[in-house]
Task: inverse folding
């Protein structure tokens, strides 16, 4: 009985949080999402910079990622030409595509030299937490922006039975690239929400 009350209490708390978020103006939601995406990209960048050039864990240039099939703006000028709903849809699609790979990365740190395991494990855990928080925020934001913003393109991740250092290196490079895209798209949305001129974005 006590356990049921605890679960009921948690459910009510979640519903209250959702209700409060839905009452928050769109501009504020975009601002919060942009801050969260900035933290996520900063974590990814920090991790790859720490491991860059390491003899045991070299980070090379990105080649083909599992998200490469998604057509996205290649620079800021192109992003400024894309509608708000489409930009949000692209950001949500990329973020959703990393749910499984981040789990794989988190469970694969044991294949690395001991010196790299601790740093990687802690940072990936933080990235997972930020990704989930950002996803929840973008879900609420998309519900306020109409059907086009709620569209998510499926970008399946094919997991292999064994994952070695090369695969981890590639996934980290791809995630850094995609987290930068997500952050850039949300910064454009934030700029538009603030009614700034395009050249100032």
Result:
């Amino acid at each position: 009985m006590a356990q049921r009350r605890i679960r009921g209490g948690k459910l009510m708390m979640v519903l209250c949080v959702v209700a409060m978020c839905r009452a928050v103006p769109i501009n504020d939601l975009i601002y919060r999402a942009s801050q969260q995406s900035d933290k996520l990209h900063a974590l990814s960048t920090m991790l790859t910079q720490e491991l860059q050039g390491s003899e045991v864990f070299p980070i090379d240039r990105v080649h083909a990622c599992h998200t490469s099939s998604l057509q996205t703006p290649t620079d800021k000028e192109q992003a400024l030409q894309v509608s708000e709903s489409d930009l949000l849809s692209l950001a949500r699609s990329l973020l959703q595509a990393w749910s499984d790979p981040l789990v794989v990365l988190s469970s694969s740190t044991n294949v690395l030299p001991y010196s790299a395991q601790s740093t990687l494990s802690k940072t990936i855990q933080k990235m997972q937490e930020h990704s989930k928080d950002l996803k929840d925020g973008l879900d609420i934001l998309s519900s306020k922006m109409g059907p086009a913003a709620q569209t998510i393109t499926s970008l399946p991740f094919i997991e292999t039975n064994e994952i070695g250092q090369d695969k981890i290196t590639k996934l980290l490079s791809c995630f850094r690239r995609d987290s930068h895209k997500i952050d850039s798209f949300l910064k454009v949305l934030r700029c538009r929400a603030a009614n700034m001129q395009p050249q100032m974005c």
User: Anything to note?
Assistant: The two ends are 54 Å apart (CA to CA). Residues 1-8, 11-19 have pLDDT under 50 and may be disordered.
